[in-house]
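Usage example:
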Amino acid sequence: MSSPDRLVYMANQIGTFFRSQGHDKAVPGIADHIKKFWDPRMKRAIFAHLDAGGVGLEPDVREALTSLKQSLPATP
Amino acid sequence: MSLIEEIDYGTPRSKSTTMVTLTIDGNEVTVPEGTSIMRAAMDAGHQIPKLCATDMVDAFGSCRLCVVEIEGRAGTPASCTTPVMPGLVVHTQSERLKKLRKGVMELYISDHPLDCLTCGANGDCELQDMAGAVGLRDVRYGYEGENHVFAKSHGEINAAWMPKDESNPYFTYDPSKCIVCSRCVRACEEVQGTFALTISGRGFDSRVSPGMSESFLGSECVSCGACVQACPTATLTEKSVIEIGQPEHSVVTTCAYCGVGCAFKAEMRGEEVVRMVPYKDGKANRGHSCVKGRFAWGYTNHKERILNPMIRERIEDPWKEVSWDEAFSFAAAKMRGIQKKYGRDAIGGITSSRCTNEETYLVQKLIRGGFGNNNVDTCARVCHSPTGYGLSQTFGTSAGTQDFDSVEDTDVAVIIGANPASAHPVFASRLKKRLRQGAKLIVIDPRRTEMVESPHVKALHLPLMPGTNVAVVTALAHVIVTEGLANEAFVRERCDWAEFEEWAAFVAQPKHSPEATAILTGVDPNDLREAARIYATGGNGAIYYGLGVTEHSQGSTTVIAIANLAMATGNIGRPGVGVNPLRGQNNVQGSCDMGSFPHELPGYRHISGDAVRDQFEALWNVKLNPEPGLRIPNMFDAAIEGTFMGIYVQGEDILQSDPNTKHVVAALSAMECVIVHDLFLNETANYAHVFLPGSSFLEKDGTFTNAERRIQRVRKVMSPKNGMADWEVTIALAKAMGFEMNYNHPSEIMDEIAALTPTFTGVSYAKLDELGSVQWPCNEKAPEGTPVMHIGGFVRGKGKFIVTEYVATDERTGPRFPLLLTTGRILSQYNVGAQTRRTENVVWHAEDRLEIHPHDAEQRGVRDGDWVRLQSRAGETTLRAEITDRVSPGVVYTTFHHPDTQANVITTDYSDWATNCPEYKVTAVQISPSNGPSDWQKAYDEQARHSRRIVPAEAAE
Ligand code: SF4
Ligand code: SF4
Ligand code: SF4
Ligand code: FES
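Running the assembly step on the lines above writes:
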C-alpha cells in the first residue's frame, strides 16, 4: 500500500508542518525532508504519481517534489 | 569472584562543601558539614554498632546501640543523629558504652526467636552481627514474659504474635522477627515515596504494618523492595533467598527493562541467581529499583522459553526443531533467494531496543553491509523517533540533555505525556523526593496519573484532550512571550535571534492564547497561565516527557515546541533544567545511537554523506548504499505491495507492538521469510518461518545506554541457555549469508563503534570498568563523558526556534466513534508484557482493563467489570471496563500488556508527519456492552495456537 494515496497523504502531512514557515522556506524544507527520509521506491512512486498529474498534492508539496525530482539523478 | 559488599555508612552523604575536622578514637577526620558522627567514624574506618541506621534513609535514633562519648559533653549521644562539629573529640568504645550496648542487645534478643541456624537471613543478619559485635554472651530474661515470638504462651493465644504475611509473591513479612527499627518505613517514604508502611501502636505494641493493617499485596505497596533491602533482620526477606540460601558471589549488571537503567548486583550461587540488589554506585538509580528489575527476572528460565532453533516452510506448518547450522543455512538461502527474485532491496531487518548496543550495531551492520541496503529500523520508530528528529533540529543532538541527578537541582518539573510512577519508577521516586523538598510539579496529561495522585505531592494538573499537545505547549509559549517572561539575555546569547523573533511573533498571535485554544484542548486557561508562569519564573525548570508526546501525528512538532519553550526560558545547559525524553525500553537510546534508523549510520550521520560512508566502507570492507531505506510502516506497506518479502526481527514483537494489527498481519503473511530472534514464541513468531532462540541479559556481555545517555555494562552471569549469545547468532547468520564479521568478544564490537563514532571515541570496556559508566559524548573533549549537554552553547551552534502550528489529527471523533482512546502502561508490566507476563508480576495485572468515566459508562449501560466491545475504524476487540474519574468524560484509556486484548487491533495507521511514529495515543472509538471475546480475538487465538505447534527434532543416533 505504498499506493499513491498513502504517499500523497504522507507528503501533504509534511507540507502541513512547513506551511507556517511560509512558501519560500516550505518548498525546500519539504523537498529536503523527503530526500532524507524516503526510500527510493517511495520516491519513484510519488514521482510517477506527480508525472501522472499529481492528484491530491498540495501546491507547496507539488512544487517541492518537482524540484526534488529535477535535482536527483535519474533513477536507474 | 566474591560477593560485592558495599559499605553502609549509616547515614546519607552530606552535600555540603564546608568541611569540618574532628577527632574520632584518636584519628583526625575531615568530613562535610552535616555528616553524622557515625558516618564520619565509618569514613575513618571505625564501625560503630548500629541497628536502626542505614545510609539509604535519614537517621531516626531509636535503637540506641550507636551511642558514643564526646569529651566535654554529658551523657552518651546516639552517633547516627549527632552531627559532627569542629574540634569534637569522640570515643566509640568504653566500658560504659560496652555495657549500654550489651543491655540494648539483650533486650532485643529476649524478644527474638533463636532459630538463627535455620533462619532465611542466616549469614546476612545485622541483628546477629551486632550481637557478635557487642559481645553478647547471655540473655538474662526468659521467653516466658510478653513476647512477639510465640503463637501461644502458657497455653493461651498470644495476642502480640502475628502470623507471616506471604501475600507478596517476592518477599515475606515475618513479624515475629521484627525489631521495629522503622528502617522499612523510612525506606518506603524517603527512597520509594509510596508511604505504604506505618508503625502502629506504641512501645511494646508497636508493629510495622502495610496500610491500615492490610496484607502487603492488599496495600498501597508497589513491591519495589526498598524495605526488604533496608530490613536488618529476616523480617522482610526475598522468597528466593529463603528458598535457595545466601549468595556467594555477585556481578554488577544493568536492568533490562526500562530506560532508567538501574544498576544491580546480580547475587549468585554458581549459575543460579539468588537475588538482584540495586547497586549503590549505580549513577542512574543510586541504590534503588522497582519491582521489575529487582524481582521480575523469573522469565529468564520460564518453561515457555524456546532453546532450540526451529524452521518451517509455511506458517501453516508446525515448527520443526533443527540444529543451529540447519537454521542458519535455511534462513540464508531464503533471504538470498528473495533478493534474487525481487531485488536487493526486498529484505531488511529490525533491531531491538532490548538488546545490547553491540548486538544492535551488528544487526544494522549485517543489513547495510550484508544485505546491501538500508532497510533497517528499530522499535524506537514506534516510540521515540520524533524525539530524535525534534531535538536534533532544535539543539543538534538526538538525546535528552540531563542526567537523572539533575532532578536534585530542579525547582519546577513539568511532565508531559508520561507517567513515570508507572513507566520509569525509579526516576519517579527520585523526582518525588525532590518534590517533597518543595519543588513544584506540573502534569500535562489527559489522565490523572499516579504522579498527580502521589502522597505528599501537589501537582498542577492540566488535563488536555488527547491529540492537543501542540496547542497546549504553544499556548504556554504564548503566555511566556506575551507576559514578558522570556529570558531574552539567554536567547540573544545562545540562539538565533531572528528565528526567535519570528517564533515569538507567531506564538503571540491571539489565536494561540490559552483562552482561544481552551475549546480544543479542554484545559482551564487560568491553570495554563499559572503553569506557564511557574515554569518561566520558578527557578530551574525541567521538562520530562514520554510517549504521550511522541506517539501522535504531531509528535515531532510537540518535541520541537517543548525545545522552543526550554530555550525561550533559558532552561537549558546547566543542572536542574533541560528537556528529557523518558525512554520506554532499556536500550531505546542505544539502539538509536547505534544506527538503527534507515537514514543514518551510527552516531546520527546521514547515509548520503560520502565522507561518513567512506569511513564505514573502509572498515567494513563493503560498498554501502547511499539511499535511505524503509521505515517499519513503509516496510509493511511495501510487503503488501509485493516489494519487501523477507525480514530479520531481533528481540521485538512487531505484531503486538505496532498499530493496526490487521495491517501488520497482512504484511507479515505476505512475506516469504520472516526470521524471529527472541526468547519466546511471541506474536510475530506466529507468522515466522525461522525462529532463532535468544539469550537473556543475564547470559551475555554488552552495554545498554539509558535515557540519560549513560552507557553501562551488562555482564554475563550464566551461560546462554540456548547455547549462543544474541551477538553470536547475528554473526553466524551473517556468515551463512556470506558476510563475515569477526569478533571474539563484545568489547571488540565496542572498540569498532568507538573508532567509527565521534561521540563514542573515548568509550571502551576498560573505561566502563574503571568509571562504572559514562554518558556520551565521551571523547577527547570529554574523556569522562557528559552529564549535562549544551553547557555554554548548543551542539548545533545556535539554538534553533521553529514555529509549531497545531493541526488537528485526522483521527477525529464523530457520531460513530464519539470517544477518544489513549493508551499507556502500568508499573508491574512492561511493554507488550512478554517478560513480565511470565513472572509473578501477573498478580498485579492479570488483564488489560478499559478505563472509562462514570458519565460515559452510564450512558452506555456499562458497569464496573463488565465486558465491553471497543470499536474503531480499524477494528474491534473486547475487554473489561473499569469505571473511574481518572479519565475525563469523552476519553477512555487502556494498557496493552496482554496479547489477548489486542489493543492494537483498534489503533490506526495514522502517524507522525516527520518520522511515521504511529499515533497510538489517539483513536476515535465507540464502546458498547458485550458478552465476551470478539470473533477476531477468537480467530486470532486459534491461529496462534495452531501456529505454535512444535515437532521436536528426531533424537540423534
Ligand atoms: S516494597 Fe516498596 S512500596 Fe512496598 S512497602 Fe516496601 S518500600 Fe514500600
Ligand atoms: S520489618 Fe525489618 S526494617 Fe522494618 S521495622 Fe522490622 S526489623 Fe526494622
Ligand atoms: S524497570 Fe526501570 S526502574 Fe525498574 S529496576 Fe529496571 S531500570 Fe530500574
Ligand atoms: S543506629 Fe543510631 S540509634 Fe539506632
